[in-house]
Design goal:
By secondary structure, the protein is of the alpha+beta class. The chain has 11 helices and 11 strands. Helix 1 crosses helix 8 and helix 7 crosses helix 8 (214-224).
């Protein structure tokens, strides 16, 4: 058992010109289709903030509460989108169909996450606004859910709002543990705290849900349209394209959760909050799971390349970020 003052294990190391120059510590857990722990490192049972990894559960709660979305727009409701043109137009469509306006959004103004989209937006004279903020799809869907139920739209971010109460209940049920605390996410919406293993179990339950249920509809939409719930250049979209049936949703501050179609699932939290360690760690975990049995048509070359993220010097590869993981 890990002592209270013992540091979390190293999950990834950065190698430059043959030398290890930095390390990323953290925690991870993998569970089977019954939610039984297969692998664990670090702290997995204490409450933490999953950040945007909660979005599939938030979207499922909205769908079960009367939100009328499917396909790409449902994926966008669970997105941390890159602010590309199709994302922004999709958010406008959600708002328009619900009789709402961009001014109803209560997420903070921001620029597109995608570098090319951001550059084009700024060159065209654009300034930070709410609809380009990466959580605007979730906020638009929250507003549309309120409109469908006759709930107040001006207070949809209040933890006591009927919508947020339903989200809290579903997250606790899927995680098989009560929500330990409610914080405020970067987008201003309530943030429900659960454990790392609770997050993995929630993802497992979502992908194994019966067809036609809100949970399964969200999972299927995200898997069918991964660039809508992320972006055209994002690593999670590349991994979901490489592994058929994979559901994956990263969050800010070094969090990511995933589930394979068979219900095996996992979650990761990088202690320093950095994102660069996640792609190699996740790719390595998926490769280990594939070795233990996975989709035969998975593109293992993509996983292998991502498990060794290049480190550059002078514009050329001089090292790599590589995973340091316990074995299944």
């Amino acid at each position: 058992m890990r002592a209270a003052n013992e540091p979390h294990p190293v999950l990834a190391e950065v190698i430059r010109s043959g030398y290890a120059e930095s390390w990323h510590r953290g925690s991870l857990v993998v569970v089977d289709e019954r939610g039984v722990e297969l692998l664990a490192a670090g702290t997995t049972t204490e409450p933490m903030f999953p950040r945007s990894s909660n979005k599939p559960m938030q979207a499922a709660a909205m769908l079960s509460s009367g939100l009328d979305l499917d396909d790409e727009l449902l994926a966008l409701a669970a997105a941390s989108h890159s602010g590309e043109d199709f994302h922004v137009e999709g958010v406008r469509e959600i708002l328009r169909d619900a009789g709402l306006a961009e001014s109803d959004l209560q997420c903070p103004p921001d620029l597109p996450l995608d570098e090319a989209a951001r550059t084009g937006f700024l060159r065209a004279g654009g300034e930070p606004d709410r609809i380009h903020m990466n959580c605007s799809g979730k906020h638009a869907a929250m507003l549309a859910t309120c409109a469908a139920n006759g709930w107040p739209t001006g207070t949809y971010r209040d933890p006591a709002h009927p919508l947020q109460q339903r989200i809290r209940q579903l997250i606790g049920r899927l995680a098989n543990e009560p929500v330990a605390a409610i914080g405020v996410d970067g987008c201003g919406a309530p943030l429900m705290s659960i454990s790392l293993i609770g997050l993995a179990r929630a993802f497992s339950t979502v992908v194994r849900a019966a067809g036609g249920t809100a949970m399964r509809q969200v999972a299927d939409a995200m898997r069918a349209y991964p660039v809508w719930m992320s972006g055209t250049t994002r690593y999670e979209a590349a991994l979901m394209a490489a592994v058929p049936g994979l559901l994956m949703k990263p969050g800010a501050d070094g969090v990511c959760a995933f589930a394979l179609a068979d219900g095996r699932a996992g979650s990761v939290k990088i202690d320093d909050g950095g994102q660069r360690a996640l792609p190699p760690v996740l790719a390595a975990l998926l490769m280990d799971l594939m070795a233990a049995g996975g989709p035969r048509d998975a593109n293992l070359d993509v996983l292998d390349r991502m498990a060794r993220t290049p480190v550059t010097g002078g514009g050329l590869p001089v090292g790599e970020i590589r995973p340091v993981l316990p074995k299944l």
